[in-house]
């Protein structure tokens, strides 16, 4: 176990630079200056930052659900952190949500130890993988750990779209590691929305069993994914939202999590016959 922890710390220190890894990925041209309005200790190792325009002359950046922020930090550091709020939430609250898991990787380490309420962050929107509500009407969202952040944005936006059914499969070590519990439990109560927890290191609590669509002591696997794909494909939305001619088997799958998980899930989806154009993920961790 000690050797594993040392390896994880070493990997965190020598992770590829976000700006270099994503150099060829689209960015919005504008740079925005946002102020940290508040910070919440979401779990033992994840902080959520609430960002607002620095002043009346600044605005929030426009973005699509699933995109990230380049965050420009001291000493020429650039962190890449997913936006957790949806575009609709950002408009109504004039605020962006950004959750960051602690690691020794310099940008995350800086945000946990040096960023404070009042800190001004220059940011820029990036990312080519996002939710398109005009084209994607059946969503399977597969999240591992902190990978829930962009999928929270997509789920929040999908809830705003009456023409979208969405299922979230969320893998976490324990119930204490689950982010956004209140938000996710509310989503689970909405028509055509489902939230399932997969807890790899603990059994579900009474709360988790009651608040979510399902809660299991297991890891996400190919059989579970196949079951959810079938359920979404066979789901009948109201006739006005499911017009004749729409291919009900066109389920779009968004995946975010540690690279080994993303690679494994992508392999399972290929074997399950999900077309490449319906599988959405980015490798920049």
Which secondary structure elements does this structure contain, and how are they paired or packed?
Blueprint: H1 2-13, H2 18-21, E1 32-43, E2 46-53, E3 68-73, E4 77-82, H3 87-93, E5 96-101, H4 106-113, E6 120-126, E7 138-144, H5 148-159, E8 165-172, H6 181-188, E9 193-199, H7 206-211, E10 214-216, H8 222-234, E11 252-256, H9 259-271, E12 279-280
Parallel strand pairs: 7-8, 7-11, 8-9, 9-10, 11-12
Antiparallel strand pairs: 1-2, 1-6, 2-5, 3-4, 3-6
Question: Would you write up a description of this structure?
Answer:
By secondary structure, this protein is of the alpha/beta class. It has 9 helices and 12 strands. The strands form 2 sheets. The protein has a 6-stranded antiparallel beta sheet. Helix 6 links the parallel strand 8 (165-172) and strand 9.
